[in-house]
Amino acid sequence: KRIDFSMILFNQVLTRMSEDGKIKLSKEFVAESGFSMKLSKKQLTMLDNINNLLDSEDKIIKKEMVLELDNDGLILDYLIYNKQVEIINNEFVVNMSLLNAIKDDIIDYLKNHQNITAAEARDLLGTSRRKAILILEYLDMKKITKRQGDFRTLL
Is pTM, for the whole model, over 0.85? Predict the structure, then answer.
């Protein structure tokens, strides 16, 4: 197996620059230490439209619906950068406050019960089975729950 030392060196340089306070690193972005995103009036309108969509009845929105309001994806990047939304399975966008509330609801449920099924999660969250499974898989990925057959347990 070939080792790509240029990528290792690049990551070490970024880490060192971050430790020295020259840049900010996040999971998705690299920015100058003093950088902050500023939106135009048009972008602020798009942001309001996206937030209204996220606050709608369903609350877990297909990414393509958000991108219909945000042609170039800059507003979605802004929301991710500011930790206001999370992309789940590269297909859905969910508001972080809602996601945290859902996570808390699942954790509370699991503290009172040994496990949870997709159907129980669907009923608890008041959503579709597909979205309940999506949330459960997200919690598995974040090492909050673990799938064991048809059940999830708390880690």
Answer: no
Tens digits of pLDDT across the chain (155 residues): 676 778 888 889 888 999 999 988 876 778 888 877 788 999 999 999 999 988 876 678 899 999 999 878 899 989 988 889 999 998 999 999 999 999 999 999 999 999 999 999 999 999 889 999 999 999 999 999 999 999 999 99
Report whether 98 contacts 86 (CB < 8 A): no
Distance, in Å, from the CA atom of 113 to the CA atom of 130, rounded to the nearest integer, reads: 22
Structure tokens given for 91:
């297909």
CA angle, residues 80, 84, 86, in degrees to nearest 5: 60
User: H or E element: which one contains 92?
Assistant: strand 92-95
Distance, C-alpha 38 to centroid of its chain? 22
Nearest by Cα to 19 from 28, 11, 27: 11
